[in-house]
Design goal:
two-stranded antiparallel ribbon; 15 helices; globular; disordered N terminus; binds zinc ion
Length: about 350
């Protein structure tokens, strides 16, 4: 692949990678970074490139090619892989559901084991399933993008445990057999850390921990404090680099706990109160978010997108980003409006 990372850099401006790292450390930046922590692959892009989910997950070059479009087509100032949260669970023996359409983001078909007994932590994790392919894709991206941050995405421990045990069962277990939930979640930490550190060694600049099931919307604030926070914290302690902790839904009630995990940056969804998140995280973690991905980005007008971006900026986020993975239905045009809105605001903050 051709080296490219200069198209958006004007003389005197920070390069995207410098701007990202400064923003994460809450240092002064020339303007806000605008990027996506989570997947930003859309159906329109897949059609354009004729690279669909199954192609991207069977060939590291195609995976890197599709990931590059977050920068080259959408204008986001970061790229990252993979595009779903199924890679780790598949290594644990779970089946991947590729969906009905070529553009569907893969998910996990639940197996529903209930106890850690009988579940083996796979040996040689880094050599299994699609893990080597994702690591190769990171190396390709790191070689291609000198000045643009490359993200490696891993699943959070509670979410991996929820895949292994089946979400419904884990919710019941959390009441009846909380110790089992803890054991199952603990079991996931070391392999995720090993995977994340391998991503960093292969050239990733930061690790995104996608802990979608640990949302306060799903397990409540008490559930997060008991079943997710200690393990997010332990995982983050083991990752030798910058970390972005992403949790979906309304996490207003758990922001303090998320800050205490030690993550460098918290990626928050549109339902989370960004102002509150910014207030409680100053000096401890950067806040990234929280543009709505459910309605505004896929279905909103250009004006809706602009207003939504301005809402996040006014709340004081350090990095403007979609609140979650972008829906495959999102038009390229709306993302470009999001990016241009941030750039046009410039440094007046
Ligand atoms: Zn999310």
């Amino acid at each position: 692949m051709r080296k490219t990372s200069k198209s958006y850099s004007v003389r005197g401006e920070l390069k995207p990678e410098e701007r990202f790292f400064k923003a994460v450390k809450q240092l002064k930046v020339d303007r806000l970074p605008v990027l996506s922590a989570n997947s930003a692959v859309t159906a329109e892009i897949m059609e354009k490139l004729q690279i669909f989910m199954k192609d991207a997950y069977s060939d590291s070059k195609k995976m890197a090619e599709l990931a590059s479009t977050a920068y080259t087509i959408l204008g986001f100032e970061a790229v990252g892989v993979p595009f779903c949260q199924t890679v780790e669970a598949e290594v644990f023996g779970l089946d991947v559901d590729w969906g009905k359409k070529k553009t569907t983001i893969p998910t996990i078909s639940y197996r529903g084991d209930v106890a850690p007994e009988g579940i083996d932590v796979p040996e040689n994790f880094l050599e299994r399933g699609r893990v080597p392919m994702v690591l190769d894709a990171i190396e390709i991206l790191a070689e291609r993008f000198d000045d643009v941050p490359v993200f490696g995405r891993v699943i959070g421990p509670f979410s991996l445990a929820s895949h292994i045990a089946n979400m419904e069962k884990i919710l019941r277990m959390s009441i009846k057999k909380p110790k089992l939930v803890v054991e199952l979640t603990e079991m996931c930490i070391d392999v995720i850390a090993e995977y994340a550190n391998a991503m960093l060694e292969r050239g990733a600049d930061a690790i995104v921990i996608e802990n979608m099931f640990a949302s306060a919307d799903v397990i409540g604030a008490k559930g997060y404090a008991t079943f997710a926070k200690p393990f997010d914290r332990e995982l983050i302690g083991k990752i030798r680099g910058t970390t972005i902790l992403h949790i979906c839904g309304d996490c207003t009630s758990i922001i303090e706990d998320m800050v205490e995990t030690g993550a460098s940056c918290l990626s928050i969804d549109s339902k989370t109160d960004a102002k509150h998140a910014v207030e409680v995280s100053r000096g401890k973690a950067a806040i990234m978010g929280n543009v709505d991905t459910v309605y505004t980005l896929p279905f909103g007008s250009e004006k809706d997108v602009r207003n939504e971006v301005l809402r996040s900026v006014e709340a004081g986020v350090d990095i403007v980003a979609p609140g979650c993975a972008i829906s495959p239905l999102t038009p390229i045009g709306n993302v470009r409006v999001m990016v241009e809105t941030v750039r046009s605001i410039g440094s007046e903050r």
